[in-house]
Amino acid sequence: MNSARWVPFSLLLAGSPIVSAHANPAPLDEVRLAQCMLENTTSDEESAFKDVMVAALRDDNDALKVSLDQLSTVMMDLALTKCEVALSALATPQFQTAAGLYGQQVGEKLMKKAFEKLN
């Protein structure tokens, strides 16, 4: 999965009024944050990713919008509650990069699981 596909999703977060209301976010280590989010991913978070993938494959724009909203909530929750990221950091380019890395890694993991089932 191409990390560039997840950048527009993370840009959606930056436009959120909750996120935009906070200035001067602390710098983030993108790789460390992506790894923390990955380590704390459960089947619930994976289900949110699957919903996005299925909606995209079906070209169902309404379902895709809903599932992307749910996925953004999942990603913000992981960052805020499991990885100790400040709310203001969600609007930074570093978070966008971390979200892209995380999305790419989870997507690859899910695709690997799917192909293993075929064997």
Annotation keywords:
6 helices; mainly alpha; 119 residues; disordered N terminus; 71% helix
What does this structure look like?
The protein is mostly helical. It has helices at 7-14, 17-20, 30-39, 43-57, 61-82, 93-118. The two termini are 21 Å apart.
- Low-confidence residue ranges: 1-12, 14-23
- Order of secondary-structure elements: HHHHHH
Mind describing the biggest β-sheet?
none
Radius of gyration: 14 Å
Q: What is the element layout, followed by pairings?
A:
Elements: H1 7-14, H2 17-20, H3 30-39, H4 43-57, H5 61-82, H6 93-118
Summed up, what is this model?
With 119 residues, this protein is mostly helical. It has helices at 7-14, 17-20, 30-39, 43-57, 61-82, 93-118.
